[in-house]
Amino acid sequence: MTSIIKVDNIQDQDGNNIINENANTITVGASGDTIIIPSGATITNNGTQNGFGRTGTVDWQTSSIKTATFTAANGEGYFANTSSGGFTMNLPAGTAGNIVSVVDYTNTFQTNALTISPNGSQKIGGVNANFSATTEGQSLTFVYVDDTEGWKNIQDSTSNATGNPNLVATGGTITTCGNCKIHTFTGPGTFTVANAASCAANNVVSYLVIAGGGSGGAPDSGGGGAGGYRELKSPVTPYTASPLDGYPSAPNRVTITAQAYPITVGAGGSPVAVPPTSAGKGNDGSASTALGITSAGGGGGGANISPQPGNKGQNGGSGGGGGRDGNPGNGGGTGNTPPTSPAQGTNGGSSPEGGWHGGSGGGGATSAGANGGGSGSNPCTEFAGNGGNGATTNITGSPVTRTGGGGGSNAGNANPSRAGNGGPGGGGDGGIAQGPIARAAVAGTVNTGSGGGGDHGNPGASGAGGSGIVVIRYKFQ
């Protein structure tokens, strides 16, 4: 025989309602109470497990917009504001049935990514690696299924989400070549790494860092030296590097981590004008920096001015060429200053002492500037030195030569073969003062770090140095 006890209210010893039935509605506990379900207990409805369990929804945390790295909790949804910079949402330690959602609050994931990181050795979509949400307006819902697949994305407003084992970054102008992404900076910027690769070797990136070239001097002057040239080719990014590949020297290797890397692209040295009230040596180029690597600006070209040593070219990534009719100790500037291995540049050329001798060429990345010369007694024999050769690399996907030295200036000779030409890679030609083939000094090509041509005067101005460039290449798939 079954016994039945019927009540409509159960109270604790303090008179508080524990269970109350009123008009077919059963209230368990009072407002503010905590209802505890013992570990291992199952709440069922006619044998189907649901009860207090979740049904595929989350509680959206509208009063706490996320703007910095945080750890998510099971059953919660978050609004992520990355307008001021990317950050990370750490997933909780997952058990089967756990659910977490997130949405792009300011539609800025495409600019500043949200990184979603699994707990410990757990996975996202079967991969133990971070996922980077990089699509504008993206919303994602993850459910933890099991230890094999881990967190599975069950709802995505724009694209499917799985853990990305590769390097993910933004910044500069981005192009693709095979399995590599290439970021090119022609001015200042930021290389922002949202997700480092799970394979450590893939975090050693290839790079090209070229500083601004020096300007030529004025008057009767040498060409500007090229900006420092520093390159490293990672083994995982196939392309043909220049002879100046620094990979064999371990200090040149850069291992990327998830952070923002500021990029500085050096300007070329400004030109020098004549008449003589403003004449002088060329101006040095400015340094470029990226990923902790610095390339020195090219040295300005020397000039035939007093007091000495006005003729001497300036030191730098590559040295400036010496001015016309050099005196003792007033030759070309010293390249690879400060020293790097491999050398970031070469020396400027030196004109012989006294007499009729043309200005010398500025140094290029791979060869020194040529010396100016002549008989020393006949102005018609005077000739200027050519700029040194630059370096060629395929880091951007096709061969490009940069960092040529500037050509030295010629005197009054009218023979075009005696003018100093810029070195291959964008070096500016030197000026010729007079005659039917008179020409102004030429600037170094922009974003090549090349030296500007020297100027003879009459009046005129020297060639400005070419601005630098930074290129970063890495495997992305």
Walkthrough of the structure:
This protein has 477 residues and is mainly beta. The protein has 2 domains: 59-164, Jelly Rolls; 187-192 and 208-229 and 249-469, no CATH class. Helices cover 0% and strands 24% of the residues. It has no helices and 28 strands. It has a 5-stranded mixed beta sheet with strand order 6-8-10-13-14, with no helix packed on it. Strand 4 (44-45) and strand 5 form a beta hairpin. Residues 45-53 have low confidence and may be disordered.
List its salient traits:
24% strand, 28 strands, mainly beta, 477 residues, five-stranded antiparallel beta sheet, 2 domains, five-stranded mixed beta sheet, Jelly Rolls
- The rounded Rg comes to 34 Å
**SSE string, helix = H, strand = E?**
EEEEEEEEEEEEEEEEEEEEEEEEEEEE
State the major sheet: 5 strands, mixed
Structural class based on helices, strands and sheet pairing: mainly beta
Biggest sheet, strands in spatial order? 6-8-10-13-14
* Strands, count: 28
Mean pLDDT: 87
Count of individual domains: 2
CA distance, first residue to last residue: 72 Å
Tell the overall outline: rod-shaped
Low-confidence stretches: 45-53
Count the helices. How many?
Answer: 0
Helix content: under 10%
Portion in beta strands = 15-25%
